[in-house]
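Form 12-C: Joint structure prediction
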Amino acid sequence: MTFLRVVWLVMRKDLLVELRSREILYTTVFFAVSCVLVFAFGFVREGQPMGDVGAGILWIAVAFSGTLALGRAFERERQSETLRALLLAPVDRPALYVAKLLGVMTLMAAVQVVIVPLVALFFQAPLFEHFLMLAALLFAGTVGFTAVGTMFAAMLSRARSRDVLLPVLLYPITVPVIIAGVRGTAALLQAEPDPAAARAWLSLLVSFDVVFITLALWTFEPVMTD
Amino acid sequence: MKRGRVGWRILLIWVLLAGGPALASVDAQQPPPKAAQDEFVPLDQLPPQEQLPAAPLLIAAYSVAWLAVAGYLFSIWRRLDRVDRDIAEVGRRLPRT
Amino acid sequence: MPRIFLPLTLLVAAMFAYAPIMIAGAPIESTMFLVQKIFYFHVPSWFVMFSGAFLCAGASVRYLAKGSREADHYAVTGAELAVVFGLIGLITGPLWARKAWGVWWEWDVKLTLALVVWLTFVAYMLLRRYGGPGSEKLAAGVGIFGAANIPFVYYSVNWWRTIHPKTTVVPTLGPGMRGTFWFCVLAFMLLMVLIVAARVRLERQRALVDELYLNLED
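Section 2 - Result
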């Protein structure tokens, strides 16, 4: 079976399972919305949002809900012992990684479709003015975050204390993604938008994505093998 | 030489050799900070931060460094000791089986 | 214990004994005065931290590629070194900064980079401790990712900070300071070699105990 076919089959399986119950989708979206709300109470004073808080809150909500989604996605695999079945299958291990990555990214895209307008609304942030640039930043950032996250979540699915260890491991490594995402988005939101700066941050995100996906593809097999 | 005694000796030597002169030299550094503690200092371009005495910070910093290193070495030594005891314990039990 | 152990310990102890004398004798820096002397232990601590981080990453690569247990021992040692000496750096730094800059902390490139790398290796140690069986391989992945992350954190924080420029006082080393500084660096590096030797031995002995217990059960 070719690499792409494996990716497609596993991803299709995950999406079908998810579509039937929609459990992870609804709970993650709701969590992201609650996150934004909590920040709204924290950072909005007398009806006025503070500074370029919108950018920060958007990315924090993405990071938090992403962590949750990753944990849940692999928890489901662990419960049905399907992870072991997948690992036993005579397929390229990296293909499993890519399939999981794409599955979680689809979920994150759905979440972002909900919270981007919400953040724009609550924090009066003109997120739709440079829509393509914003979409590019969100995409590249999500790829980076999810690439590292899928790797760690897969590694941890057979470890103890996995729920708390995932954020512990994930956040320090994804600091550049958060910084680049927030600063890039903020560059678009400020009084005089700076698309050049946003492009610079985007290029940092893209190089991060390339490096870490490559690393993940290299290390996925040896790490998941006993 | 039994490993346990070697460990103690090494730690003791280290602490004595390192701690002694360290204490001595810190004492020798006491006089200069007096200038920093007074508001009036005969130097131009003195930033307002000079009012904060440097000596306590310096001493605190070096104490932290010494204590951390000594503590870490001690913890390694202690764990080595425990592991050697475990090995001895297992070694005693093995011939019986 | 390897024969080099005792003489190396004596050498390191002697260097650390002599270091304060050199430090006291070094010229006082003209803008930061006395508190700048924290520098002689602060910077070597960071050197050890980054060396530990790279040791961990390199050993992790070898562990994942070759499956060598020995490499895993070195990986843990590197990570532990990074945590301990990073902590020393993170405490001595603010103590110095309070006097030199007036604030305990600043989102300067080096500080932020150091903090993030330190946190990564704390996470590594947490994983080793609480991850249960099989966490050595996962930790190896973390070590590699953590080291690969270093340039990215550096660049992202650097770009972030250049938009809000801050003046930091970084002394250029005059002759009296240079000698003292490199002496302290050497002392710390030799200390690191000593610690690596001891710690790797600890890991080897632990692996031996586990193996012996397994044989016992047979």
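Section 3 - Comments
Chain C touches chain A at residues 64-65, 67, 116-117, 119-120, 123, 126-127, 130-132, 134-135, 137-138, 140-142, 144-146, 148-149, 152-153, 155-157, 159-160, 163 (CB under 8 Å). Confidence is low (pLDDT under 50) at residues 163-171 of chain C.
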